[in-house]
Amino acid sequence: MSKIRHILGISGGKDSAALALYLNERYPELDIEYYTSDTGRELDETYQLIDRLESRMGRPIVRLDAVDLTNVANKSPFDHFLALYGGYLPSSTSRWCTKKLKLEPFENYIGEDPTISYVGIRGDEDRDGYISKKQSVQSIFPFRRNIWSEDVNKLVLSNTNKAKFFNLAKTLVTSGIENRFMQIAEKDIAPTFNFKQKLNALLDVNVTTYNKVVFELLKETDYPVGKLDSFPLVENEENLVLDDIFRILEDSGVGIPAYYKPLEYQVEIDGEIKHGTYSRSRSGCFFCFYQQKIEWVWLLENHPSLFENAMVYEKDGYSWMDSETLEELRNPIRIANIKKDHYLRMNRNNQSKSWQDQILDADGEGCASCFI
Length: 372
Known about the structure:
Elements: E1 5-9, H1 14-26, E2 32-38, H2 44-57, E3 61-65, H3 77-84, H4 96-110, E4 115-118, E5 137-140, H5 150-157, H6 162-172, H7 178-185, H8 195-205, H9 207-218, H10 242-252, E6 263-269, E7 272-278, H11 293-302, H12 304-312, H13 326-329, H14 332-346, H15 355-362
Parallel strand pairs: 1-2, 1-4, 2-3, 4-5
Antiparallel strand pairs: 6-7
């Protein structure tokens, strides 16, 4: 049997960086390989974060390139594929950038090796993110109280596996919770008691017991975790949210990625000068099409050369946004209107949204939904 590989992708964002620190400290016995997929069009702050993270952990972060550019001058992996796509810019309906620059390099890196991929989706997020189509790859979510992916949970809790689950639970359940746990375990999934209700009910009784039963059941499958003699995350009952992520980054000395930190802007509203704050809400290419309008303004005012570079890509009728070009957006009147709209939205009903809230609003979009 091939060795089980443990893999964690570093996007340059907050969650994957915090997860790398968390696992490196809490589970040093796991031989985790850290990697990052370089598009060649990241912010400098992203590369700086990866360098600090590598130094803090004392572990290498492998740089994956989507294409060999050794003999190609002044080009990036993004530019290479953009040319292949005839100048067609990626969009939310055609995310070829994620496929070519993030997902395919990852799949090529692991090959057919049985692999456990650790994903930094938090306990305050209700999603699984990217799940590889390869049967040899299994995703684990250490920040959630439910570390298993939905396919695993549905398998072990299916009515066809109810007897196996029940019998294993009888041997693993601890005193004090046996009656309640076993009552839930013997219930069928039905319209009146669906899959998520059964899962949450079992987790509410005892997370570790549920994890132990799942681990034993996976030994009868081809899932990579089931091929391990032991798996320390079975004992993990933590449920980490955004504040915990920031705490991990700050306590480690790595710090929060600089582009998350709010900067002040001024805008005139009804003859009065107001002071708002803006920042970037995600990692990814500086021209990411998932950016909000206010983030494009942030890029223009804080990285003007990168904004100019992003404008260069808008040609032959292609633009980063459906509604307007960057040339139109950079108009001072348009910028003032974007800031006004942003300020009013963030301060609606006299309840100002924090920059953390703005990050929460944006989570789940872009490359962050795959490599966070």
